[in-house]
Amino acid sequence: MKLHSIVAPVILFFSATTFAGPADYVYTPAVEYGEREIDFKFGSQRLGDGNPDLSAWSVGIGYGATEWWFTEIYAKYKFKTPGNSSHYDAWEWENKFQLTETGKYPVDLGFLLELEHPKDRSEGWEIKWGPLLQTEFGKWQLNGNLLLKRNYRVDSPSDTELAYQAQVKYRGNQQLEFGVQAFGAVGKWSNWQPSNQQSHQAGPAIFGKLPLGNHQAIKYNAAWLIGVSQGAPDQAFRLQTEYEF
């Protein structure tokens, strides 16, 4: 089966439906009990129209507390280029819940609940939540997430916004795998923005896991994203690396 025959329907499906920051990544539903990790993420967006590029990075530590719950705390930083140094932006508490046994049903189901406290108190508290879906066809792994986000205790009124994440990966050599990622946001969940104001990005991605022995490994994934709508950044690069132990 050719790559485009699988990738195209997935991208089209999710384009019909994140508020993705430069360093955001695609969540997956699986949880590994007892796993500990140190997680580093970096991303940069080229906004175009003469605006400065926006970059962000974060570092976190996570733990598989149970067979169905993984929790992680992040410190997040951002900066604009050229000329600006990075500065602390927020802390974030991410919680992922695995709701079905991996591979038992046609679709694996998880749930995300994320709490962020920005440094800027006028932004209040941000809560993000939504289902995480994953399925496989032979060596192809497909992920799709629908996420809702809202800010509470803010200076100005806040709506509940809708976003999506999508990923297609060909599971071949564990150390280097290839695929596609897509991120998008449509605005208020019950009243989408006009299409020229929505944000949709998609592009090629690579993935890998490098075993280090003694239950240790380094995992990575990276993507080069192209804006496919007027409201999206022109280009974006994102990278995530995890040290598991």
From TrEMBL:
<keyword id="KW-0732">Signal</keyword>
<protein>
    <recommendedName>
        <fullName>Cellulose biosynthesis protein BcsS</fullName>
    </recommendedName>
</protein>
<feature type="signal peptide">
    <location>
        <begin position="1"/>
        <end position="20"/>
    </location>
</feature>
